[in-house]
Amino acid sequence: MPVPVPVARGVAHALCANVLAIRSVAEMWPGPHPRFGFMPRVEIPTDKRADIWYKVKQLTTRSTIGWSLPRLLQKLNPILQDWGNYFRFCTGASDLFADIDHYVGDRIWRWLMKKHQSLGQKKTTIRRLPSRLRPTRRAWREGGTEQFLLSSLKVVRRHGKLIPFRH
User: Fold this and answer.
1) pLDDT tens-digit profile of 30-82?
2) How many domains in the chain?
3) Together in a domain, 58 and 111
4) CA-to-CA dists, residue 42 to 24, 45, 65, 89, 92, angstroms
5) Beta pairing partners, 41
6) Closest CA to 80 of 61, 66, 59
7) φ and ψ at 33, to 5 degrees?
8) Residue whose C-alpha is closest to residue 147's, from 112, 119, 95, 96
9) Of 62, 70, 81, 89, which residue is 20 to 30 A from 104 by alpha carbon distance?
10) Measuring CA to CA, which residue among 46, 21, 61, 59 is closest to residue 148?
């Protein structure tokens, strides 16, 4: 259920899901901020950030070593896509998406090294390949399944209609 935010003259307003935390820039600085002015700032909550790191870590533990790389990617991709599409409207999302992409890539690398212990890190032929969707970025890929890159999502600042607060 959307939470109405009171609107004063010259103040932007927004509706957010209860999961998102709204922090007004006006609350953090006395007077208007030189860059942002008076406007609500929707940020990704810290606990939601921790949740996505935890989910990725749980899918790349030793208990999943028996899976193939495409199966692991098929389990990871929907989680990453849903999470990214939900939070792409938040402030600082693009930086966090890049961090998560790096973390997921590192976890997959470690998972592969555990899976193929006979290969040394320097002798392995397992490499990230250029992404089919974004050739300038490298992603884990095997067969038709490719790692979903959160940084490939378009980050949008506003969505939906802006409805003024009514008393």
Assistant:
1) 556 666 666 667 788 889 999 999 999 999 999 999 999 889 999 999 999 99
2) 2
3) yes
4) 8, 9, 38, 8, 9
5) 23
6) 59
7) -75, 140
8) 112
9) 89
10) 59
